[in-house]
Amino acid sequence: MAEGIRIGPLTLNYYGMIIMAGVIAAAALSHYEAKRRKLNADIVWDCLPWVVLGGVIGARIWHILTPPASMVEQGVTTWYYLTHPLDAIAIWRGGLGIPGAVAGGALALYLYTRKREISFLLWVDIIAPGLALAQAIGRWGNFINQEVYGRPSNLPWAITIDPRYRLPEYRDVATYHPLFLYESIFNLLNMGFLLWLTRKMAHKLKQGDIFLSYLVTYPMFRFFLEFLRLDASLVGGVNANQTLMLIIALAAAGLIVWRHRETIFPRQANEKPEHEDIENLEDAIEKNEE
């Protein structure tokens, strides 16, 4: 499979074009969401370069810190990247970690909103559905690079991986679970869920709840998806992506519950707020004085 379109000495890499298509689609959806909320939608396009830059840097750093086991066996370790800077920045060959992309993009957005003196939580909510859409589109870049595939499978939708992209112990196995496809479909559904939340539950939500919901849904799906992955990123023998996903999902879910604790755990009907007890005590003292 060709890696891109050649125009003279230049090559437009399919992987990069797919990633950018996802970014533009995400920005367009975020623009629409901002207009729907009667906000200045131009902010989306103004912050886009910074969010994309932060996301790409974060994604690449995460990959460099947690290279998959097959690359480590070939000597492509974190130390290798640190001593080969040209390979470290070669993102067109693949190697972008979603956890780092979300963290880097969120940090860039936070710094941008601080500078513009606008609400970070509001705008991260607006961008969250677009983020899911960008992932749904971007995962097809993994199909082009024949990466992010799962365990061997004979299911009708299993994909064939060229021998040069197979792990050494699976050289004679042709078809595998298309993890990139599973994740792409899930992210489309997740985008729809987040958009539904913004419309149907708006009266119950606090700023930041949509993004926190994303930090529950996607990490939980990714946690279970990692069980099908052959080439996990191991740190100290532990699947780094799977462990981090579980921690993020539990932390985000806990934070949602804490933020809505008064609604989830309402006071008992016969339990009076503390300020009412104080007022009753003051009234009793005044009556005694009279």
From TrEMBL:
InterPro entries given in the database record: Lgt (IPR001640)
Membrane topology of the entry: Multi-pass membrane protein
EC number: 2.5.1.145
Transmembrane segments: 12-31, 43-65, 90-113, 120-138, 179-198, 210-228, 240-258
Taxonomic superkingdom: Bacteria
GO cellular component annotations of the record: plasma membrane
Annotated keywords: Cell membrane, Glycosyltransferase, Lipoprotein, Membrane, Transferase, Transmembrane, Transmembrane helix
Sequence similarity: Belongs to the Lgt family.
Protein name per its UniProtKB record: Phosphatidylglycerol--prolipoprotein diacylglyceryl transferase
Species: Candidatus Brevifilum fermentans
